[in-house]
Amino acid sequence: MTDIESVDIQTLKFHPDNPRKGDVDVIAESLFANGQIAPIVVQRSTRHIVGGNHTVKAARSLGWETIEVVWRDIDDAQARRELAVLNRAGDLAGYNDDALIDLLKSFEGDFTGTGYDDEALSDLLDALDDTPSEEGDAEVEDNPTTFGIVVDCDNEKQQMALLERFLEEGLNVRSLS
Q: What's the pTM?
């Protein structure tokens, strides 16, 4: 197991190749309400933050002097790989909307430190209400302008693979070609 160390926050460096644009205000709200939930990940040799650049920005904005760190003894190439996957993994994740709604409702309107608010819950509920039911699928098929997603692929093989995947997920799809 990797040890977690409390480190002077001013000695850490933001990774120069970090492509992520984080919501520092949401992270700061969470840090204020919940404290640091998970350590940040830092390349030991350069002190570049591999995971948690925006957490450090948020902590600095709150006046924190130290932050919990997991050190990685990795070279620059591996640091960039880990930076990429730590950012991308979240992009590829999805939600079980019903479970998310149940979780948000369990807060009974107090969303402090969660990154959610009443409007986000309302938008989620509205989006689910707008999802066509099986009875409503005929209406979607009769209206050629109703699409949830439009995908433009460079080749037919790619297009067919995407269509098959969407169908496997139970989505109502059609090809524009």
A: 0.68
